[in-house]
Amino acid sequence: MSDEDGSNESDPLRDLFAHVRPRAVPPEADGAEIRRALFAEWDALTGRRVLIKRLSAAAAAAVLIAGSATLLLRMSTAPAAVVASVERVRGNVEVGGAALAVGGRIPSAARIDTHDGQVALRLDGGGSLRLAPQTRLTFAARGRASLDAGTVYFDSEAGLTARGLEVRTAFGTVRDVGTQFVARLAGDSLDVDVRDGRVAIGRAADAIDVRAGERVSVTIGASAPRREAVARFGPEWDWAERLAPPFDIDGRPLIDLLRWVEAQTGRTLVFADASTEQAARDTVLSGTIDLEPLSKLAAVLATTDLDYSLDGERIVIRASK
Predict the structure, then answer these.
(1) Do both 110 and 152 map to the same domain?
(2) Helical residues (DSSP H) of the chain, grouped into ranges
(3) Which of 51-55, 263-267, 307-311 is predicted least confidently?
(4) Under DSSP, is residue 199 helix (H, G, I), strand (E, B) or coil?
(5) For all residues of the chain together, what is the average pLDDT?
(6) N or C, which end of the chain has less CB nearby within 10 Å?
């Protein structure tokens, strides 16, 4: 072969490759072994990567599960909200099977059984709730309760920041509209007596308004509720009056005590004359005394120049003789 310029000089690389012989092909068994080793190494390498990824994912999932379990545990062990506190107890009253005492706190979802006792509660949102003997009531939440048996009295105590009360029964839901009322389950009927203000009884088909001085009875099978007049004081209210919350007189004007007695007894306060009313406003009380409303009134007035008498539904305040 001649170069481009026509010379016959040999090419060193060509001469070198002219003497090289092809490499022998390895036996098939050796080739298979080589491929097996290569694939094994590849599987080991990629397998480790997959395992690391899987372990990382599992670890992340374990952290998430642990965090969720901790959250659920905290949620399940979180204390129930307090919906009321105990102001007075008479006889055997239990909540969740434990005896109640003055100062005790009532959590939501707690069932109260009065048995042969009575209890007065201060609701968390304001207002006084009192339970008569043989009453069973469960608080669903703040301001909401279910009455399964017995009788309750509620006083929203105008002037406090009461949120009102909703009492659910099998006959309808009794809703306070700034008032004093009794709700009583008796056999196949629900009786609602309103001493002051107004109550609404919500039912599936309609709503029933009950006004002061009225009793409305809702009975199973009756085509319409029954209405009748009811006294705002007297024997039917005595049990609730005996559970009246404590009233601190120390440093308070006498007129405040008189207004409290008026509200607790359902009677109307009347002054014999203007000078008597002024004396009640000017007289400042001192000390402590814890009695039922009328007994407390008599004991306090005995330390002043005033006296009282009952005239039907009226409490008449006059100068002492």
Answers:
(1) yes
(2) 12-18, 28-77, 235-242, 254-265, 274-282, 293-301
(3) 51-55
(4) strand
(5) 82
(6) C
